[in-house]
């Protein structure tokens, strides 16, 4: 099943998107959690900036 998923993402419309993963540190426990976002390749910079804002809002 995983091979089919990977093969699907490498062809067709899957090549147009990228997964943006941001590490967020919890202020209470100090443990890291990860925020994931799927963004179109044309909007990667916007997605990274949005992820930074989410991290800043969650720490405030």
Report the total helices: 2
Low-pLDDT stretches: none
Q: What portion of residues is helical?
A: 40-55%
Q: What integer value in Å does the Rg equal?
A: 15 Å
* First-to-last CA distance: 41 Å
Average pLDDT score: 75
The helix/strand series, from N terminus to C terminus, equals: HEEH
- Derived structural class: alpha+beta
- The tally of beta strands, per DSSP, is 2
Shape: elongated
Strand order of the largest sheet: 1-2
Biggest β-sheet: count, sense, barrel?
Answer: 2 strands, antiparallel
Strand content: 25-35%
What would you say this structure looks like, in words?
This protein has a two-stranded antiparallel ribbon with strand order 1-2. With 60 residues, it is an alpha+beta fold. The N and C termini lie far apart (41 Å). It is built from 2 helices and 2 strands. It has helices spanning 2-10, 44-59, and strands spanning 17-25, 32-40. 42% of the residues lie in helices and 30% in strands.
List keywords for this structure.
single chain, 60 residues, alpha+beta, two-stranded antiparallel ribbon, 2 helices, 42% helix
Concise structural overview:
With 60 residues, the chain is α+β, with helices and mostly antiparallel strands. The chain is 42% helix and 30% strand.
């Amino acid at each position: 099943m995983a091979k089919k998923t990977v093969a699907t993402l490498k062809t067709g419309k899957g090549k147009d998107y990228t997964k943006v993963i941001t590490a967020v540190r919890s202020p209470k426990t100090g443990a890291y959690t990860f925020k994931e976002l799927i963004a179109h390749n044309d909007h990667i910079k916007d997605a990274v900036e949005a992820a930074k804002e989410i991290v800043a809002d969650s720490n405030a």
